[in-house]
Amino acid sequence: MSIGHTLLGLLESGPRHGYDLKRTFDEKFGQDRPLHYGQVYSTMSRLLKNGLVEVDGVESEGGPERKRYAITDAGITDVSQWLAQPEKPEPYLQSMLYTKVVLALLTDRSAADLLDTQRSAHLRMMRILTDRKRKGDLADQLICDHALFHLEADLRWLELTAARLDQLAKVVAP
Amino acid sequence: MIPEGSLLAAHDLRKTYGSTPALDGASFSVHPGEVVAVMGPSGSGKSTLLHCLAGIITPDSGTITYAGRELSAMSDAERSALRRSEFGFVFQFGQLVPELTCVENVALPLRLNGVRRKAAERTALEWMERLEVDDLGSKRPGEVSGGQGQRVAVARALAGSPKVIFADEPTGALDSLNGERVMELLTEAARSANVAVVLVTHEARVAAYSDRDVTVRDGRARDLEHSA
Question: What CATH architecture does domain A3-84 belong to?
Answer without folding.
Answer: Orthogonal Bundle (1.10)
